[in-house]
Amino acid sequence: MISLTSEVRTPYHRWWAGPKLLGLCLFTVATFYLDTPLSTGAVLAVLALGYLICGLRFARQGLRLLRPLIWVCMIIMGYHIAIRDIADGAVVCLRLAAAVAAANLVTLTTRLEDMLDVLERLFTRLHVSPRIRRRIALAIALVIRFIPELTRKGGTLIEAWRARSTKKFSWKLLLPFALLALDDAEQVAEALKARGGVE
Amino acid sequence: MERNLTQIALFAALIAALGLIPKFNLPLGVPITGQSLGIMLAGTVLGAKRGALAVILFLGLVALGLPLLAGGRGGLGVFSGVTAGFLFGWVVAAYVTGLLAEAWAGKGNWISPAIAAAIGGILVLYPIGIVGMYLKLDASLMGLTKSMYAFIPGDLIKCVLAGLITNGLRKARPGMVAG
Q1: What structural domains does chain B harbor?
Q2: Nearest CA to CA, how far is A54 from chain B (Å)?
Q3: ipTM of this predicted complex?
Q4: Which GO cellular component terms, listed alphabetically, does the Swiss-Prot or TrEMBL entry include (chain B) (predicted)?
Q5: Tens of pLDDT, residues B89-113
Q6: CA distance B145 to B126
Q7: Shortest Cα distance from A165 to chain B (angstroms)?
Q8: Do B6 and A100 lie within an 8 Å CB cutoff?
Q9: Residue B55's closest CA among B125, B130, B144?
């Protein structure tokens, strides 16, 4: 399973995941208080610098993750130009970009294992019982294991459809696809039970 | 116990897989992605509690950095974006869909899970998503609501599909479907 963590090593990779996530929460709340294009632009510029000091390749990865925002920002600016409130439109777009870019920076520089560690520590701190924690860990492992498996089986269904039909595969394949998930769940449940079960 | 856990995990995986496989052709030839259909199915097939847990598990993995949303999006950024309200709304949508589907399970037709999916996946989900956009965008609530009209026809078709698939699963595996 491929995670979004960047393979480009950056200084941020060495920072602890917990404080990074806490910092991100505070930053995201703080962005709501930015209300001039200048201050918001300045914050975004600092963030851009934060990306750039890790090299061009890393910065490009960051930009790629921001691509879906382009359309949203065009629509927002169009709306604000129509009501003649360009400064407000700019603040909204810049604020959005800053919040998303900061969150992506944490995602790009924190490994899945470290995120899972933070989750584990958080659950311990919240006094979630070890039994529940083990169940959550097992569920996460099962999802990560079965996403490629289900996707592959879905692909096989589509191939079988294409071998028999000239038409593009239709929604009718969704029923056997959902059935695969239901049956896999049943089989894995049996397998878990045979190995002593989940307490 | 084991079955509850594996069904929650496998449906979280199904929601992800529906975002990864190519777009489907609807009866009218309109291509759609199936991820929101996966949310409805989590409710109609697993019921309220397990359905919502499957969605929470899926979103948790997205937040941890797996690119599982349709189009390969993921990470913490999507929860800061404009559509974050819809992601949080998915949990409530699956729960409400599941509650209604469980309540109407005795009817044994495709229409009741389809209506449950429409109430959860449109009537409950849209307001939460719209409030999320409102908080991010400073635009008028009315304008944002109108911008959602375009998505209603596609989502209604997905509700019908959710109903048909749930009914099909009910016939194929009696006793394993909550809704």
Answers
A1: 2-23+31-172 (1.10.1760.20)
A2: 19
A3: 0.89
A4: plasma membrane
A5: 999 999 999 999 999 988 889 999 9
A6: 8
A7: 14
A8: no
A9: B125
